[in-house]
Amino acid sequence: MGDRTYFAACGKGLEPAVETELTELGTQDVQVRRGGVSFRGDRRVAYATNLWLRSAIRVQEELLRRQVWNPDELYDAVASLDWDRYVTPDQTLKVSASVRDTPQIRHSGYAALTVKDAVVDVVRERHGRRPSVDTKDPDLLLKLVLQGGRLLLYRDLSGTSLHKRGWRPIQVKSPLNEATAAGLLVITGWDRRSALVDPMCGSGTFPIEAAMMATDRAPGLGRRFAFERWLDFDPDLWASLIEDAEARIRPTLDFVIEGADHHAGALALARKGARAAGVEHVVRFVESDVADYVPSAKPKLVVSNPPYGERIGKDDAEASWSKLGVFLRERCGGATAWVLSGNKALSRHLGLRTSRRVPVMNGPIECRFLRYEMHERG
Asked: What is the pTM of this model?
């Protein structure tokens, strides 16, 4: 298989992080789009992006690009593909769709049904039998994007979202998504060789993702991907990529990655997550309120996602942000601090002047990732 076009989808605001990662992975023709980054590469690159991308949520291979304006044109375009290359009558499929600004095709459900009909009709005509639909665990997951008459049809390589590394044991309340945390760490420009602390770490997403980055542990190790069920899957190539990734893992670090929080239950989850991620020996968690926390080593980077006030109350949130500001001023001289803020009013309580603001979505919450340069105290 020669070079193909792919799309790595991500949360809004994380496109630059995905672009950085894709460039490091050696992909070609990398172009930032809304909600993700397109690129070109061969099969090895396609597999490697699923194994190594930290800030994306899925990778999709482009199968078809056309202009269509009505259901008949959509059906004919999809039916023109050689579906024997992608699915057999004994396999299952699922189609999802996103539709905008195409007047004769307004409903995503109808568009998805049209694509499904075209696929199964082609297969039935050739084999006398057709693939079944499986909405939960299909062998082939197709994604239609139709905007302004521009059709893009993808097959999804990833399956389960890439943010699900397998280390988070349960869904904690209002967590920072693993891919979002990793993408924000990429945006900081952290060199992965210097001390990093999170003084309000909660269940430990920032420190755990940082430890995985620093030890060069591929986030996709130990999980399954949709492309492993494809007709053109190359198991030997995939096995070689897994072997190479396992050989790259650094067993130890000579610098500190540390998280602190006052909530013992959150720290228990953090330690459990670190064990599951294979990084419990290189990340340290300390039970301490931010007002009392003294990092075990002078940090080069401080990164944190303080509470925005939705759950703990306005007064408590303001107090937390004020204490974080004191911590940064008094104990982090010479460091760069990045703080994720979902509430502009709260960020003022840090009492610091930002040097950069990066708009980003944390789940449904519009946030700003704020950078502060902490000068040494005289």
From this structure: 0.95
